[in-house]
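Journal club prep, notes for RB
We'll compare a predicted complex against what the paper describes. Inputs for the biotin case:
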Amino acid sequence: MQGKVTNQRFSPIRWVDETGSTNLDLLADAAAGLPAGAVLVADHQTAGRGRQGRVWLDDPGRSLLFSVLLRPAPATAGLVPLVMGMAVSGAVDDLADVATALKWPNDVLVPTAGERKLAGILSEAATGPAGFAVVVGTGINVSFGGQPPAEVADRAVDLASIAGRPVDRAELLDAILGRLGPLVDRLDAGDAVGLLDDYRTVCATLGRSVRLDTPGGELTGTAVAIDPSGGLVVESDGVTHVVLAGDAHHLA
Ligand code: BTN
C-alpha cells in the first residue's frame, strides 16, 4: 500500500508491499552509492531484524516499518539511533497526545501504559567503496487490531489504543520525518552536545535501577548519565561502567 507521504526533506521515499528487511535493502543500496536521505517503507517484512540479533515480527499492514539511509560523520554514528528515538517519540506525542519516553538506547515506551513498548529502532553502519553509511530502521506497533500478539501481550502497546483512534501510517511517517530532518541537520552541523541534552530529557532510563544485558555479560546498577558518544554510564558497587551496546531493563 502506497501512503500519501508529503515530506520533501527525505528522498526518494519508496513504499513496498513486502520485503525481507528494509534495513538490509537500504544497506545494499548504500553500498551501491545511494545518497543520504533515502527512505524505504514496507507493509510487511518476512525477515525483519531486531536489536541484538533478534527477529522483528509483524502482521501485514499493522505496523509502520521503515528505514532511513544517512551518511553522518563516523564519529557521530552512535547518536543516530538516539536521534531517531527522539523523532519517533516526539511525533507520537504530537499525534496521540501522550508523553512517550525512551528506554536507553531507543525503545519508545508509553509510561502511562506500564512502560510497554510502542516502537523499536535498529541502527546498522557499513563502510565500503561508496563511503560510510548508517541505516536506521524503525518498527512501530500502529494497530494490533484489538488483541496484541500473545507473545508480546505483557510488554507491547499499539498506537491506536493509546491515541484512542486509528492512526494513518503515512501521516505518522510524515510526522516522524518532519522531526527527523532538523535533528539530522543538527547532527551534521556538529551539535552533538545539544542533541544529547535533548535526549536526556526524554530518556526514562536515567536515574533508574537497571539490569543491562550486554555482549560482554550482565551488569546491574544505577544509570547515572549518558556519555558524549551516547553510551549509558552505570554505577555498580562503586565502579563506573560505560555501556555502548545492550538491552536495558528498568528494575524500579
Ligand atoms: C528492536 O529490536 O527493538 C529494533 C527493531 C527494529 C525493527 C525495524 S522494522 C524496519 C527496520 N527493518 C528491519 O529489519 N528492522 C527495522
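Talking point for the session: The longest strand covers residues 116-128.
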